[in-house]
Each structure stands twice: as structure tokens, then as C-alpha cells.
Amino acid sequence: MDLHRVLEKPLVTEKSTLMSESGNWVLFQVNRDANKHLVKQAVEKIFKVSVLRVNTLMMKPKTKRFGKFVGQTQSWKKAMVLLKDGDTIDFFEGA
User: How far apart are CA 8 and CA 12, in angstroms?
Assistant: First the structure.
């Protein structure tokens, strides 16, 4: 798998912001077929940082209603990446 297709998008939420401030964790939405080794390689190559640990988990679909129709969102995979002290990833450099 191409390393540029492993990371789909960064997750910027309240929880991810607290995790980055307290423990240097960064959260990403990743490809469902990616494993921990691929996520580590992709983050190290793209952002030029050192990764100490990677945790992955599958997010279950949620039930959504649109009028009388009931459906579900798609399941997706989340990766929590622990960076070495001193390494950072800035998602809002120009803001």
C-alpha cells in the first residue's frame, strides 16, 4: 500500500487537542486496511518525526435518521500516534 494513502485526515477534536497538549499524541483517520506498522512508517516519512507508539481502533457505525428513512454511517479506523518528546505536528501552520 502507498504510504500517502494510509493517512486519510487528521482528527482535530476537543479530545485530540487535550491529548496533544498533555501527552504529545496525534490522532488520524486512516485507511481501514492499514496496520500499525504502515501507520508508523507513513507518519515518520510524511511529517519527519519519530513515532514511539501507535494504537489503532475501529470506530463503529452510528445510526442516522433522515425523515422516515433510517441508515448508518460507515465504519472507519482511528490511529493514535505517540510522538517522541520535542517532535510536533502542526496542522494549522498558516492560520
Answer: 13
* Contact (CB, 8 A) for 7 and 39: yes
Rounded Cα distance between 47 and 4, Å, is: 11
In the chain, domain spans:
3-83
The answer to whether 55 and 17 are in contact (CB under 8 A) is no
- Report the C-alpha gap between 51 and 41 in whole angstroms: 9
Domain 3-83 adopts which CATH fold?
Alpha-Beta Plaits (3.30.70)
| pLDDT, tens digit, 9 for 90 and up, residues 16-57 | 999 988 999 999 999 999 999 999 999 999 999 999 999 999
Cell numbers for 73, please give them: 454511517
Q: Give dist(CA 44, CA 61) in Å, integer.
A: 29
Contact assessment for residue 84 and residue 49, using Cβ atoms and an 8 Å cutoff: yes
